[in-house]
Structure formats: structure tokens, C-alpha cells
């Protein structure tokens, strides 16, 4: 069974690199299924990385039409892909207990319950380590994500929840596209790394640079107030494009 794994890339090569490493560590046989969807990245470091990995992985360069692949978004790519494929953001920490052949299990479960989109639940543990503040509609990150843990599905083998899923290691099953979406918890639960103050992949300087160019991001709304409270940006008088970041006293 070969299921394409589409990893979304936009100026965030460190996350992409980490996702590829995680997948290959869990199941090396999935390596040939990995495809990078480059949504018009213009960050020099990301472009350099993509040039390097083209020797080993398929990289699809596209206009930035968003991260979705569906009948009405990035439709040409949707039509090109087989009946089942994985679509994921790269900024996830996969579960250390994820089964070796986890995609095969997802495929079986998707067919069993006729699920259009089946993806990983996002952990809401370590609440105190998440960015505080208003994330969505007056809710903190934890409180917003909590709603997706409300409607458990009766399945004796897996911990499943009836909840919308976007691009969190989501298995797309075209046969049931118009049906429901389900999140897998238990050993399939993952962490969304940008939710956390301590980020093991990106430094505070890298996060500042990234979010300064991605102010539409929902994470920017919690990152920016925290950053402004804890850090100060000092411009370089001799070069307006350069600066350094220091912790506030």
C-alpha cells in the first residue's frame, strides 16, 4: 500500500525537515511516499533546503493557494492524487508511541467508519507551557482546542472524536469526502509545536522572523503580545535590515 504524504511548506524548512525525520524514524518505508508542497516560499534558507532535498524527495512548486487540497482548493493536485492521501502541516511533534504502520491503520479505520478526513488529535496537555492570551474568539489555545475533545465515538480499539480536522496529519479519503471528519487520540495524539513557548525546533529569533511575515497566522495573535512583553528588538544603526533580540530586564 502506497499512500502519498503531502507535507506543506511555506518558509518553514526546519519544521519540514523535522517532520521528514520523524516519519523516516517511525517507518522508513514511507520515505518514497513523501511529497513536499512548496507554497511559493521565498525565504533563502528554505529555498536552499528545498534545492538540497529535491535529490531525494518530490517537491511540487505551486502558487500559494493555501494549505488545502480539495475539490475546490488546489483542485488540479487533488485530481492528480489517488483516492487516499495524507495532508499535513510540518509543525507537529508526532507521538513517541505512534504505531510503526500507523498509516495502514488509519486507512482501515477510514474505510470502516466511512470517514472523509481522519487526522491526529492535538494534545491539550501542558497547558501552562502554551502561549497565553486570546487565540480564537476570546479563548485561549487550550480552551479553544478543548472543544474538539467533546464528542467521543464508540470504537473499542481506538480513541476517536467526532471533530473537524484541517491539516494535522489528515488522511483524505475521496470516496467519503462529503462525510464526517474524525480525530484520532491515544497513541495518535500529536503536539502542535507553535502552541508552546519553548519550541524545540525554532529559536525565538526564527519565530519572530517567521511570524513577522505571517501576521495572518492565528499563532501570531498570541506570539506577538508574549514576545513584546518578554523581549526587545534592537535595530542595527548601520544596516536597517539587521537587528538583534534581547530579553527585557
Describe this structure in words.
The protein is α/β, with parallel strands linked by helices. It has 2 domains: 179 residues, Spore Coat Polysaccharide Biosynthesis Protein SpsA, Chain A (Alpha-Beta Complex), CATH 3.90.550; 44 residues, no CATH class. It is built from 7 helices and 13 strands. It has a 9-stranded mixed sheet with strand order 3-2-1-4-9-6-10-8-7, with helices on one face. A hairpin with a 2-residue loop joins strand 12 and strand 13. The chain is globular, with a radius of gyration of 19 Å.
List descriptors.
9-stranded mixed β-sheet; Nucleotide-diphossugar_trans; 249 residues; alpha/beta; 23% strand; Spore Coat Polysaccharide Biosynthesis Protein SpsA, Chain A; Glycosyltransferase 2-like domain-containing protein; single chain
CATH homologous superfamily caption of the largest domain = Spore Coat Polysaccharide Biosynthesis Protein SpsA, Chain A
Q: Structural class given helices, strands, pairing? A: alpha/beta
Radius of gyration: 19 Å
Query: What is the topology, as strand order, of the major beta sheet?
Result: 3-2-1-4-9-6-10-8-7
The CATH class assignment of the largest domain is: Alpha Beta
Q: Give the helix level as a range of percent.
A: 25-40%
Mean pLDDT: 94
What is the beta-strand fraction? 15-25%
The separation of the N and C termini measures 56 Å
Which spans have pLDDT < 50 for at least 5 consecutive residues? none
Can you tell me the CATH architecture of the largest domain? Alpha-Beta Complex
Order of helices and strands: EHEHEHEEHEHEEEEEHHEE
Remind me, CATH topology of the largest domain?
Spore Coat Polysaccharide Biosynthesis Protein SpsA, Chain A
Specify the number of helices.
7
Sheet with most strands? 9 strands, mixed
